[in-house]
Amino acid sequence: MSFTAEVKDELSRVEGETPACGIAELSAIVRVCGTLSFYGSGRYAVRIATETGSVARTAMRLVHRQLDLETSLTVRRSVQRKTRNYLIEIPEQDTLEDDLVRLGILVPGQGLARGVSPSLLAEKGCVEAFVRGAFMAGGFVADPRRDFHLEIAVSGEEFAQELCALLGRLGVGARLNHRRGSHAVYLKSFEGVRDLLRCMGARRSTQAVVRVRQLKSVKNDVNRRVNAELANERRSSRSGADQLHLIGRVSSTVGLETLPQALREFCELRVRHPEMSLAELGALCDPPASKSAMYHRVLRLQKLVDE
């Protein structure tokens, strides 16, 4: 099961705080993956199509519980894509037109609604439920082990912009991208994905994302430390090779036996321990010398050679 399917399965078990939350959630599902058919004055039918069983289950539950409408469910298996297609049909019935108005799908005397009805979103819980329904119907979230990315694909730019605004009301900053006749409301940060999953009620999935982020942080910290150690070793190796070359020049021009005791001690230790850092060499001196003191001896050797 993909991470998206896991999240949607968890969200399908989230109950709204009030009946109004259920109406808001169902409204978003119909708006994103539903089709409205018109047969004449006051005669409508609705079809909800999805490839996710948890979405079909949620839509059926909300239609029956919130609207008490008759429905039929058809399940087909796609041989090519090896997936199931769920089709929920809400046929023409006496109360359907009023229910569509209640869902914010129809505006009396004006036809189809373009934006989101403010009456659906009076409470924060209703906003969260609406966003949850939109994600259930058209959402995708990447496996956090690979990337932090969440998006909701919808049709209609005005609806997409209002969905972005609703995420903003929940404290989640989202962006809008137009692609192939649809619009994607998307998030590309750990904080955004975490906060939206939490707002929608996916607590278990939120914890999974947080754990992955913590593991990535530890891994990145270890990698930084290892890279720093490797870089230090490379610098030490280059410095050791340069100092051995310098000692060779001192030996051929001045003579090591003519050097002061401190410089001669440094040369002897460097020849015996070419891989050590200056700090490590200083610890072997008698008495021990600091890294700064050892570096000063290197400068004195270089000055002798230059002179």
The name of the CATH architecture of the largest domain is: Roll
Radius of gyration, in Å, reads 34 Å
How far apart the termini lie comes to 75 Å
Number of helices: 11
Helix percentage range? 55-70%
Fourth-tier CATH superfamily name of the largest domain? Homing endonucleases
What is the overall pLDDT average?
87
CATH fold-type name of the largest domain: Endonuclease I-creI
Would you count the extended β strands for me? 10
User: Structural class, from secondary structure content?
Assistant: alpha+beta
| Strand residues, percent | 15-25%
Write up this protein.
The chain is of the alpha+beta class and 307 residues long. It folds into two domains: 3-201, Homing endonucleases (Endonuclease I-creI, Roll); 226-306, no CATH class. The chain has eleven helices and ten strands. A hairpin with a 2-residue loop joins strand 1 (34-40) and strand 2 (43-50).
Concise description?
The protein has helices spanning 3-11, 19-33, 53-67, 96-102, 124-138, 157-169, 190-200, 203-253, 261-272, 278-284, 291-306, and strands at residues 34-40, 43-50, 72-78, 83-90, 106-107, 111-112, 139-141, 150-154, 175-179, 182-187. The chain is built from eleven helices and ten strands. It has two domains: 3-201, Endonuclease I-creI, CATH 3.10.28; 226-306, no CATH class.
How are the SSEs placed, and which strands pair?
Blueprint: H1 3-11, H2 19-33, E1 34-40, E2 43-50, H3 53-67, E3 72-78, E4 83-90, H4 96-102, E5 106-107, E6 111-112, H5 124-138, E7 139-141, E8 150-154, H6 157-169, E9 175-179, E10 182-187, H7 190-200, H8 203-253, H9 261-272, H10 278-284, H11 291-306
Antiparallel strand pairs: 1-2, 2-4, 3-4, 5-6, 7-8, 8-10, 9-10
Helix pairs in contact: 2-3, 2-5, 7-8, 8-11, 10-11
